[in-house]
Amino acid sequence: MGIEAVTARPQSDLGPEAAARLSGWLRDYQMLPGVPDELFDVMRRPRADWLELLAGFAEYPEAESRSRFSVATRHIRDTGVTYRVYGEENERIWPVNPLPLILGHREWAAIAAGVEQRATLIEAILQDIYGEAKLVESGALPAAALTGSVDFVRAMRGVEPPGGRHMPLYACDLGRGPDGRWWVLDDRTQAPSGAGYALENRLVLSRAYPALYNRMNVQRLAPFFDGMRKGLSASAQRSDPRICLLTPGPFSETYFGQAQLARYLGLLLVEGDDLLARDGKVYLRTIAGLKRADVILRRVDADYLDPLELNGASQLGVPGILEAIREGGVAMVNMPGTGVMESKALLGFMPKLCRIMLGETLKLPNVATWWCGQPAEQKYVEDNLSRLVVGPAFNASAGQCSRSRLIADLSVEDRESVSAWLRDRPGDHVGQEVVRLSTMPVLRGDRLEAAPFVLRVYAAWTPDGFRIMPGGFCRTSERPDARAVSMGEGARTADVWVLDDKPVEGATLLASHDDVKIRRVAGTLPSRAADNLFWLGRYLERAEATLRLARSLCTSLMVTETAIHGSGETLEGLQTLLVGWGALDEDALGSGSLEATVSTLRDEDADGSVIRLVRAARRTAASMRERLSADFWTLLLGLETELAATWPMPRSEAEALGQVERALQVLAALSGLAQENINRDAGWRFLDMGRRIERGINACRMARTFAHEAATTDDLDLLLDLVDSQITYRARYLVGLSMIPVRDTAVLDGFNTRSLAFQVLTLKDHLAKLPTLLDDGVPEEPHRVLLPLSTEIETSEAASLTIERIAHFEATLLHLSGVIADRYFLQGAKAVPTIKLSGLG
């Protein structure tokens, strides 16, 4: 195609540079032999929708295009959009292509109709196999094709699902076959993942290219998620249900996507330990006692849901939850047992089952599949091994073939092994036609290249029937010959733009004002979230205190007027604190202040080093990403990155001091965000309580170290530095440093925001605002510990304050931390339903 044809398009009006750029992309684009492509038709003519998209990209100068996408993808890095490859400890940054997959409205209508039909068919099959089992009785579906799967949950037979549906949420992976039609590669019926990532991909590209996004009439995702949320609510028994998203936890491969979905839909993100099954119901452990969980959207495979009835080794589920489902005490989405429909053993039966159950032919055909549990099919696979893929029939097959293999690519020895597997356990294997995926254009550097792709499409049951997400989750392969695409094999992702033939109205999740009950608190805080917030506060405060110690250590030998702590007992006390906190190894003490400062900041082996504390804070924060703002997460990740790698190794005390000061500034910014950008609900209180307890403990420990009876002026000056009270002290006392006033400033002064007294007063206020389990007027244990401490501090006189009393204050704060954990955090079997609640029901 020439430049003239491109510039003739009336909607583009491309300049010479843009036209040349577009023409070069099209001219150099190499299609894979014998594989259909999204950009070009069979006559190698560019399709109109793709031409409009690429023309829009070409209009951006090259530097601006890169800059726009770089700004958008920086959001991915800064906010910690990640995924995890199974078996790996570290997370990877989410990889997004600058170009979306484009689907016209007519083609999309056919895809949507096929996905809706398939979801309806699978629901009908599930109703039968967990109900009357007529398909098995009639021979239309062999019993072994079901019972061979670990995902067939016999305990769910005869159980009426909430709302009458086993599978309110469905997804399928699609690929375009050689004939140009879309084919179903896999069904996702158990706990379809990726919807949160699809939403994130849309946010990235719509931010990078907003004008192009709007001009091309891209259908919005919000109506799908709105319908999904309404469908979840409709499955509950109460009008204002408590809906939870059950996650395997932060080490799940797709944890960020789960957290993103929970945040967007307003769901509580919970783990198995957060829930308790009792008396045929499921409860959420909260700081106000047990609260009813009405609906659970699960991301935990069924086999791990209930260690009492299923996998006894599971630590991800909830003991007794299957009984609660049978009793109708909780709605589970999707129902346990739906995962059986993901078995490849069933793919070969789907065309016949569609005719039986719906009286229709499949609108989206399967990949041709032969289950070897039948003699004729087994023989066919054995006779045609050289041109088939052989793989496991079930998700957790007992056979030796744990993944699909193209027999033609195997050695003679491996082929003989596959033949032996088939003869030994034929029912554990399937044979499938080799699927060569179609390709779509991706930008690699300045070139447009063809990449095989897989499209995942979602369907959610709503009060108005199934709603199909207009778009989905697209994965592209980095390899030119891909027969399977997974995120663990170097794949990238792309947004999916479904184009409308008319302008698209803006859509959000905003509800009608008549449907919303006014609420000024976020709701009951789960115990695990309170636990994580509390320790997040403690880790951040300890990191700040350690940085202040490192700053003093760094300046101890610098030749400046303020360097008065460079030797003697003051320096020894400073070093003793760092060693006692685990921030510095004793072997590093003799290496000089620069090396000791660097070790305090970056020593990966020191439990109390700043990098270890910041990483502990990040791991804790990762368990509740849905509760933290993007700004908070960006600052925390940035600090970890700088401590770990970005900062160059300092060559002098001055450079090390600069790095310490920068880290303190980031922590100050995090503290400011916590104070100004987080609602004053229970979550904020636990975050602040963690900081206050840690700050109070640190103030006591520093006072005991540097305000002892034989303290020098250097000691007292350093103490005021460490508790950040130099300005406060010097504004009140003009006579210089003196023992009793310094002790009072650091410990007893209730007006000094850094003193122990201020922390205790703040803790007293926080505890007074938290809910109580019983409305009997009897103070709970945290109050019984804190009130005497508060009274003792308020009535103490500075002149009589001793090191022993300060140590007593410190021990009491440590005890208070324990009783707060005993009262508000996860209690296991000790949890009891609330008798009368002070907060929400």
Automatic annotation (TrEMBL):
Residues 100-476 form the Circularly permuted ATP-grasp type domain. Transmembrane segments: none annotated. Residues 525-825 form the DUF403 domain. InterPro entries: ATP-dep_Glu-Cys_Ligase-2, CP_ATPgrasp_2, DUF403. Signal peptide: none annotated. Pfam families: Alpha-E, CP_ATPgrasp_2. This is Putative circularly permuted ATP-grasp superfamily protein/putative alpha-E superfamily protein. It comes from Polymorphobacter multimanifer. The lineage of its organism: Bacteria, Pseudomonadati, Pseudomonadota, Alphaproteobacteria, Sphingomonadales.
